[in-house]
Amino acid sequence: MPAASPMRGSMTHPPTTRRFIFLLLDRFTMLPFAAALDSLRLANKMGGTTVYEWRLVGAAGDFATCSNGSQIRLDGGLDGDIAAMRDDVVIVCGGDAIATQASRAVLAWLRRQARTGARLGAVCTGAHVLAKAGLLEGRRATIHWENHDSFAESFPGVDLHRQVFVDDGTRLTAGGGTSSIDMMLHLIGQAHGADLAAQIADQMLHTAIRTGRDRQRLSIATRIGIRHPRLAAVVERIEANLENPVSPPQLAADAGMSTRQLERLFMRYLNRSPKRYYLEARLARARQLLLNTDLPLIEIAVACGFASSSHFSKCYRERYATSPYRERGVQRAASVLAIPERKDTVLALAS
């Protein structure tokens, strides 16, 4: 245990030790997991006492393999003696090819933990597995923005939001990346006071603590690098209407300009016509649905504003140089291939 921080005593609530259990699914993303874990480590350091402990659990074997190829040594498996108690918090760490990670064993283990009354959470794509287990039905949740549309199609019973994290009582979800820090600081602040959470953020160079009201993505103007407010508003409307496309003349009229003016703005700032930009946005959404859901092709086509699966397939092939059928097949075949073992990147983490 590191030496006590000179700031110890800043906790506003009596210290009690709480345990976190991290379920590391194969190909989980390192950043959100490491950010969550280090928040707990720093809570112990800055508070000057052990207020958090943690255990790492995986679906199979002694190691969990990260999406970057690194391996993390586990404390136990699903059939071991690590099980949640009422005051524990279980965090599902997801990542690539998440649909293939929701095995019967994983789902059954999560349901058992839920029955103890423990809080269940997820970072990155881990919310997909919680939802698959039926543990987010009727609850508020979030997931990484890249998986938002596919999640919404797969789990319509979940009240899905676009915030960095969502605290719905016994359910916690964070979008991934650095949002894990914000979620953990939220929990630490609840348990031990805002002062300790602020000290941890300062230690992590996390200069702005986001709340459950903050959205995940940058503004459209920042994201696509434009400083024209009316054009940004048109792009925002396009992204909000992929299933029922709005015609360029209507977009222009609603933005208070002529169709020719709108076309000039798109060519100047985005190097493509409004029609082309709209098509590419619809195809990008279709690709996410294709690779992250089991929806039939016709349902994906309709959800992205295409009148038929044949028209969708033609446009998809022109954009991505492969058919949607082939891309889905290749992605699923690749998802079952093991990442090569990297003995030089095995990490053992102690609580």
Q: What does this entry look like structurally?
A:
The structure is a single chain. By secondary structure, this protein is α/β, with parallel strands linked by helices. The chain has 2 domains: 18-216, Rossmann fold; 220-335, Arc Repressor Mutant, subunit A. 44% of the residues lie in helices and 13% in strands. It has helices at 30-47, 104-115, 126-132, 148-154, 179-192, 194-203, 220-224, 229-240, 248-254, 259-270, 274-292, 297-303, 309-320, 324-335, and strands at 18-24, 52-58, 63-65, 71-73, 76-77, 89-93, 119-123, 140-142, 159-161, 165-167, 171-174, 346-347. Strands 5-2-1-6-7-11-10 form a 7-stranded mixed sheet, with helices on both faces. A 3-stranded mixed sheet has the order 3-4-12, with no helix packed on it. Strand 1, helix 1 and strand 2 (52-58) form a beta-alpha-beta unit. Helix 1 (30-47) packs parallel to helix 5 (179-192). The longest helix has 19 residues, at 274-292.
Structure at a glance:
This protein is of the alpha/beta class and 351 residues long. It is 44% helix and 13% strand. It has two domains: 18-216, 3-Layer(aba) Sandwich (Rossmann fold); 220-335, Homeodomain-like (Arc Repressor Mutant, subunit A).
Outline the fold blueprint.
Blueprint: E1 18-24, H1 30-47, E2 52-58, E3 63-65, E4 71-73, E5 76-77, E6 89-93, H2 104-115, E7 119-123, H3 126-132, E8 140-142, H4 148-154, E9 159-161, E10 165-167, E11 171-174, H5 179-192, H6 194-203, H7 220-224, H8 229-240, H9 248-254, H10 259-270, H11 274-292, H12 297-303, H13 309-320, H14 324-335, E12 346-347
Parallel strand pairs: 1-2, 1-6, 2-5, 4-12, 6-7, 7-11, 8-9
Antiparallel strand pairs: 3-4, 10-11
